[in-house]
Amino acid sequence: MRLDDALKTGTIICDGAMGTELQRRGLGKGVTPDSWNITNPEHIKDVHRTYIQAGAKAILTNTFGANAMRSAKDSEYTVSQLNLAGAKLARECAGDEVLVFGDMGPTGWEDQLPPYGTQPKQVFYDAFRDQAIALEQGGVDALMVETMSSLAEAKIAVQAARENTSLPIVCSMTFARPPSSRPDDIRTAWGDSVSDIIETVTEAGADVVGSNCGDLIEEMAQLAKMMRDITQIPLIFEVNAGRPRVDEEYRTIYSLEPDAFAEIIAKVVSAGANIVGGCCGTTPDHILAIKKRLMK
Amino acid sequence: MTDLKLSLVNSMLSRAKAMDQTKVIVQDALDNKVPALEILDNGLVAAMSVIGDKFSEGEVYIPDVLIAARAMQMGMDMLKPQLANEKSVFKGTVVIGTVKGDLHDIGKNLVKYMLQGGGFNVIDLGNDVSPEKFADAVRTHKPGIVAMSALLTTTMTSMKDIVDGLVEAGVRDEVKIMIGGAPVTQDFADRIKADGYAKDAGSAIHKAGELLGL
Questions:
Q1: Which end of chain A is less packed: N or C, by CB atoms within 10 Å?
Q2: Which of A117, A188, A244 sits opposite B153 (nearest CB)?
Q3: Of A2, A3, A1, whose CA–CA distance to A236 is shortest?
């Protein structure tokens, strides 16, 4: 199914977290999740399938860091291998009924971008271009530039995807908690405002915008409304299962249980979001809870 | 001297004009025979501390800090020829790194720039730094502070391994340990027996000074 057709059918439920699900399946500290596309494909497929069983109509490939500046930098596998494998695993699980979004995360080097850094923009562009091309070859339905804190970097990623593939492009930014003195001044950690983001990424070629991860949880509905007030294009929101903390045994705890999480998602949908799902700490149970809540 | 500090805060936060304006202000002070150490301490370092506070309060953002850090570095380079003994101007040495298993550099870099701007000599061990590497750096550089960063809850636990590693290496009591990063809390710092926690790069300057009794 095409993304634009799927959007006509109503709210699209996306999947939840990949990283925390892989940790549950034994991904060790310091091992890049992307490498599991090649070394542990059964685990990746298992995560995709459990999300689809829970009700996800769109899934993200396990390729968040698979660009030449991030995990592919020190990997024994190439950018092309990591992304092709990730795209094919997702496609295999999704079939024709479920959408596959090719996941493109930040490089982790955004402080090296001019004017504050000294890495040429072209290096970033090339990294995103090579990833986008491999994901398209692997058969994804759309590209999703996500967890971007720097609008400057997001713009380059969207341009690289737009100019080198023919796929629809989703661009999802990560926001910081606004200062208590200015609760409505929601920006990224890089200081990018909601209006600047919408203008810049749509001009660069994004078909869908939105937000995932970050410090905002309950505030995501407010953010969705701010975006909806200034744009008519489809909006995507993927929310963390609360803010993480570490317990006495040094295990990571995400506090939002599926039902409470689904209530927040319902508000995000009421505020104008068209695609909703989970980010860090969410599980297939969280996605199932969204499905049940939205059917009410 | 308040004027010098305030004009430097303005110049260092002026984004595209930061380098040019800061250069003019520092040169002007030098031409007016203001001692280099005074331009450093009451000008550049004081200005960076104000910028750090503005960052903590959400008045300025990451790009402002990155640009201010470059302007600060340029200003320090201008003063260097007149600072007789460069080492003596430092408030202390900090060994900094992102902990083992964690590849996120940016938060650690922001703290590094802030501490450099705050007058500390900073040794950057990079990311994915093992307990052994931290212990070696303590022996080699004899820092007053070891600073650790982690962005992920899953790699936060490496901080405990590093504290334990410094104990095993017999150098724990020679340094103060401060930690930070998005998921880190004061409670976590207490639990792993770190000496201090800073919630952001701006607070890190104050925490480092506090730990060294400055």
A1: C
A2: A244
A3: A3
Q: What is the ipTM of this complex?
A: 0.92
Which residue carries 């570490």 as its tokens? A246
Q: Which amino acid is at A153?
A: E
Domain ranges of chain A: 3-295
Smallest Cβ distance to A252: which of B61, B128, B154? B154
Complete domains list, chain B, with CATH: 2-86 (1.10.1240.10), 90-211 (3.40.50.280)
- Which of A23, A196, A250 would you mutate first to test chain B, the one with the most B CBs within 10 A? A250
Query: Could you tell me if A118 lies within 8 Å of chain B, comparing CB atoms?
Result: no
Q: Which of B107, B129, B125, B127 is nearest to B198 (CA)?
A: B107
Are A291 and A13 in contact by the 8 Å Cβ rule? The answer is yes
CATH fold of A3-295: TIM Barrel (3.20.20)
B61 contacts on A by Cβ (under 8 Å): 187-191
Do A29 and B100 lie within an 8 Å CB cutoff? yes
Contacts of A146 (CB under 8 A, 6+ apart): A60, A64, A103, A104, A105, A170, A171, A172, A212, A213, A238
pLDDT in tens, A126-145: 999 999 999 999 999 999 99
Minimum-distance CB partner of A29 among B58, B154, B188: B154
How far is Cα A235 from Cα A171, in angstroms, rounded to an integer?
9
pLDDT in tens, B131-171: 999 999 999 999 999 999 999 888 999 999 999 999 999 99
Q: Which of residues 86-115 of A touch B (CB under 8 A)?
A: 108-111, 115
Does A183 contact B at CB distance below 8 Å?
no
Instruction: Give the model confidence (pLDDT) of A93-124 as tens digits.
Output: 999 999 999 999 999 999 999 988 899 999 99
For chain B, what is the mean pLDDT? 94
